[in-house]
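Following up on my earlier thread - several people asked me to post the actual chain instead of describing it. Fair enough. Here it is, all 168 residues.
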Amino acid sequence: MKKIFIIITILVISACNNQYVTAKNEINSCFYNYKVAVKGGNGNEAIKYLDKNSLNYYNTIIDLSVSADSITLDHAGIYNKITVLIIRQLMPKEILLDMNGESLFIYMVNSGLVGQNSNQNVDLADIEIKGTSANGFSVVSGKKLLYFLDLTRKMVCGRLILQLYSPQ
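Reply from S.P.:
Thanks for posting it. Predicted structure:
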């Protein structure tokens, strides 16, 4: 009886570990596919790997690009400020008014404004999975950055998507 209990315990632990490894592999695979799509300038493919919150970030960028004054931009954070200034330089306000977060993201990937050089050496490390969410560090050229990425693992139409951006 004791041997049966030990065998069952080992099998349960092994099964749980396999699920954890599978989930980590899914996240890494999804992130890799996202990187390949971005590197290839394929916004229509890259967008398939992002969730609604990630796309809402680009809605925020559109709003800032269309209506933010200098005081608002001063409080937007350096990355958001640079992104808004680049978009203002490249796109007329009238075009931005007809766009949403999805179309802006696709435009930015297709035109090389997102990730052509910046994401090629980015990987994920120390992924911790908690149900449908996960956290991990971003690693750039082998160096771990000091901030966590919040990753939301969701299956949408049989495809894993990730939340990679959180507007600050």
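The two ends are 56 Å apart (CA to CA). That should answer part of your original question.
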